[in-house]
Amino acid sequence: MIISMRRHATKEEIEHVCERIREFGYKVHSIAGEERVVIGAVGIGDVTVCLESLEAAPGVESAVRISAPYKFVSKEFKKERTRVRANGVEVGGDAFVVAAGPCSVENERQIMETAENVSAAGARILRGGAFKPRTSPYDFQGLELEGLKLLAKARTATGLAVVTEVMSDRDVGLVAEYADLMQVGARNMQNFSLLKELGKSGRPVLLKRGMSSTLKELLMSAEYITAHGNPNIVLCERGIRTFETVTRNTCDLAAVPALNELTHLPVIVDPSHATGKSSLVPAVSCAAVAIGADGLIVEVHPCPEKAYSDGAQSLNLAAFRSMMRQLQGYLALWREARTADLAKAAAQ
Ligand code: PEP
Ligand code: MN
């Protein structure tokens, strides 16, 4: 259920509604909005009687049932876009955000050189895996704690925010000490113990779409994190598995506007894992800007040929600079569209 309070409803009226919800045996899950408070509640069974009673309570404008199985991440619950803040960077707001960096953190020189270069080229977030989910147990598994420390060092040197993957619920506390944005990899999108722990941790989450997951499943995973207390989630389209073999995955670009219709959460695109080929990354990045994504996460390495992982899809430093220049024309149109969109939302 969503209970929308009238503009400037009093604290007592809000508290009274919460009490009534509890009396009916339902759980008050989240309260959103500053000027106009919206209360979310969930419960099992028929909520009709509760809805009718709440509609009559003082200060209540409307009480409705949310039809989507994902409740708090749905557009029905909240019309305005969610802005996710990570170390001074806002994803989902009025600026397009680029995260860039190597697939894996390999050594100090590699991460510092990459951080300085991607920052100078206009990236706001540094990516880099310290815990790596690899298909083969014999492949490089990541520097773990040492990698996290190197990312923190690069953040101090450049002011970039840091996004890095957390693979297990056991590591959430440790990774949260170093990361501004906790990445859930495609292979872990439905690791429910991990999602619950991230809900409790409160650190913003970058949730990647599983390679065989539907958008509904992606939203249900986001709902897990929200239901456990953390509404700060950025969704990521990183390509899905199809019969095509020329590209590593098939980039589902329509997922961006489709998700924008279904959820208030920001959506970014990963053109690197979506294509598997560095030559295809700039074109898919331009398309992501044009289709209204909130940002990109791109793999960049000072020497892709020597990368410990995902070298074939990594841009070198010069190619990244050149792609950022190429994006400028699309970004100007993006800003126009976003400004119009935000103005339209404010007028409603
Ligand atoms: C990565 O970002 O390096 C990664 C492993 O991504 P994904 O989980 O999308 O495969
Ligand atoms: Mn990678």
Can you describe what's shown?
With 348 residues, the protein is an alpha/beta fold. It contains eleven helices and 14 strands. The strands form three sheets. The protein has an eight-stranded parallel beta barrel, surrounded by six helices. Strands 2-3-1-4 form a four-stranded antiparallel sheet. A two-stranded antiparallel sheet has the order 5-6. The mean pLDDT is 95.
Write out key terms for the chains shown.
binds manganese (II) ion, 348 residues, binds phosphoenolpyruvate, 11 helices, alpha/beta, globular
Sheet with most strands? 8 strands, parallel, barrel
**Unreliable segments of 5+ consecutive residues:** none
The count of helical stretches stands at 11
Bound small molecules, by name, code or SMILES, are: phosphoenolpyruvate, manganese (II) ion
- What number is the mean pLDDT? 95
**How much strand content do the residues show?**
15-25%
Strand order of the largest sheet: 7-8-9-10-11-12-13-14
SS-based class: alpha/beta
Cα-based radius of gyration, to the nearest Å = 21 Å
Termini separation: 22 Å
- What is the number of strand segments? 14
Topology order in helix (H) and strand (E) letters? EHEEHEEEEHEHEHEHEHEHEHHEH
What form results from the Cα inertia axes?
A: globular
Estimate the helix proportion, in percent. Answer: 25-40%
